[in-house]
Design a protein that fits this description.
- This protein is an alpha+beta fold.
- It is 39% helix and 20% strand.
- The strands form 8 sheets. A 7-stranded mixed sheet has the order 18-19-17-16-22-23-24, with helices on both faces.
- Strand 18 and strand 19 form a beta hairpin.
- Helix 13 packs across helix 14.
């Protein structure tokens, strides 16, 4: 807790608006965390494949956590140089001209109800590849916002007619703070309505979708100030009236910047609820076999002509697989951890360490959420393969950790095939809460066969990326390069060569298991949809 604040010091308040809750973090001019507070919110599942949240719960969480971090840090509101955002992406928040919600619950990123609308668009463009080569988003087309807009128009026409703007999650909060409607290039670039090559909204896609261009908010650079805190918002949050609000970006973009991956050839992996891999290039990658999400993180600070592209591919069930395992299989470990006052994951890791690399032939396919890289097939399902009588709980615990790492390797291999030399780099930066699991990081290093560079405070990397955007926007830092100089590598984890050779053999089987089981997965998915 900071007690004595120098009045000349400027701070950045970041709201990291994730899928499970909002984290408010105050950063200082050196990129250090001064105060942090988190509030969860609910997710609603009205029907199979429907996933919704209440944006007013987001706003309540933002107001509450803002007041709490200001109180905890003892920082006067006038010392907050700006507010910036990292937000969950791929949402659809319909609002009227005054920013009022037109649905009490809205579709979030993983809502997949709009598959019929996606099929119409794919047919219109003469196939998925033609469509993909315009908008560059390889994730399952069912979840793209443009198709969600179409679903609303076809199924809730009165709501569509009343819609003034379709916003992302952070865009709704930014309106509540400033009264301004906005989005950024990063968020817009994976909506399905953005022309990645031309770096602008695609009239062709919106016309094909039957979506009014005027319903899309203006697109800004991530470091632009898009408005100022209003009197009403100041009253609700404790912020000072007219505090600048910087647009920030989606969580995938902020993670890239927060990892310091701001020049061509750099690579990182995020290990949180999901696990994704991103690299920096200067040209989009429109390889249909890779089908990555081509995200526009920023103009690198050098001005026009220095734009960076972030091809990114995602394992939807990353760290959440470990949570699932804990909840389903580890009652005893949970009980023991509560009794001893220790972290349950530490107990699980002790068991994992008692198993040799490769789990004696037990493999885990980490597709608990479906729709993961490398093929983004929503019918994909999780599986344990190779179970025999000698396998014990400890084998299952380790195999879950290995399965996520295997899928990460598959993503890197596909990037290599598309001409992005990720393995040749010899290292990959690691961020996200999963980096604190040292056993898992060693498994990642051994499976990938390259050094894992674990950043300090890895769980704050996404928020720190938003802080860099805010700081550049209000000139705390001249550019992103200067901001990234505040980052520190906490540890370099080197691969165990013996384990790597074992994993190389199993990786071939891992890929084979997915392809051989896919038809069975599709049948299971169809059965589950009928329940």
């Amino acid at each position: 807790m900071q007690k004595n604040v120098r009045t000349e010091t400027r701070y950045i308040l970041v709201h990291d608006l994730g899928t499970t809750g909002n984290k408010a973090v105050i950063f200082d001019e050196n990129g250090n965390v001064v105060a942090s507070n988190y509030r969860p919110f609910k997710t609603y599942y009205p029907r199979p494949t429907w996933v919704e949240q209440n944006p007013m719960e987001w706003w309540e969480a933002v107001c509450e956590t803002t007041r709490l971090v200001l109180n905890e840090s003892k920082i006067p509101p006038q010392n907050i140089a700006c507010v910036s955002f990292s937000g969950q992406m791929l949402g659809a928040v319909p609002v009227d001209e005054r920013g009022n919600l037109l649905r009490s619950q809205v579709m979030i990123w993983c809502d997949a109800r709009s598959w019929k609308q996606a099929e119409k668009m794919i047919e219109y463009f003469g196939g998925w590849e033609n469509y993909y080569k315009i908008m560059g988003t390889g994730w399952g087309p069912e979840i793209l916002p443009v198709h969600k807009f179409m679903w609303i128009k076809e199924n809730e026409p009165s709501i569509y007619e009343k819609t003034y703007k379709f916003l992302e999650a952070k865009g709704f909060i930014e309106y509540k703070l400033t009264g301004e409607f906005a989005t950024d290039h990063g968020d817009a670039s994976i909506t399905g309505y953005f022309d990645t090559k031309k770096r602008k909204i695609s009239n062709e896609i919106l016309e094909a979708a039957g979506i009014d261009f005027a319903k899309i908010p203006d697109v800004h650079e991530s470091h632009e100030v898009i408005g100022y805190v209003t009197e009403e918002a100041a009253r609700m949050t404790g912020l000072k009236v007219n505090t600048p609000v910087v647009v920030g970006s989606g969580d995938g973009v902020c993670a890239c910047i927060g990892a310091g991956v701001i020049k061509e050839g750099m690579c990182y992996t995020y290990i949180g609820s999901a696990n994704w891999v991103g690299v920096c290039t200067t040209e989009p990658i429109f390889n249909i076999r890779v089908a990555c999400n081509t995200v526009l993180p920023l103009s690198s600070g050098g001005g026009p002509g220095h734009e960076l592209i972030q091809p990114v591919s995602v394992t939807a069930a990353g760290g959440v697989t470990q949570d699932w395992l804990k909840d389903v299989f580890c009652d005893m470990e949970n009980y023991t951890a509560n009794k001893l006052g220790v972290n349950v994951y530490d107990l699980m890791n002790l068991k994992a360490m008692d198993v040799p690399a490769g789990c004696e032939g037990l493999l885990f396919l980490p597709y608990l959420r479906g729709g993961s890289a490398p093929f983004y097939d929503l019918h994909s399902r999780g599986a344990f393969i190779g179970i025999v009588m000698p396998h014990q709980k400890k084998h299952f615990i380790r195999s879950v950790l290995e399965g996520v790492a295997f899928n990460c390797r598959w993503i890197l291999e596909l990037f290599e095939n598309a001409g992005i030399p990720t393995f040749d780099l010899g290292e990959i930066r690691a961020i996200g809460g999963g980096v604190k699991n040292r056993v898992w990081m060693q498994i990642f290093a051994d499976v990938l066969g390259i050094n894992i560079n674990a950043l300090e405070s890895p769980q704050e990397a996404t928020g720190r990326g938003a802080a860099f955007m805010g700081g550049v926007g209000v000139e705390i830092w001249k550019n992103y390069k200067q901001a990234a100089e505040t980052l520190k590598i906490a540890e370099i984890i080197k691969p165990n060569i013996v384990n790597h050779e074992i994993y190389k053999k199993l990786f071939t089987i891992f890929k084979l298991a997915y392809s051989d089981l896919l038809q069975a997965m599709k049948r299971i998915a169809k059965f589950q949809e009928q329940i």
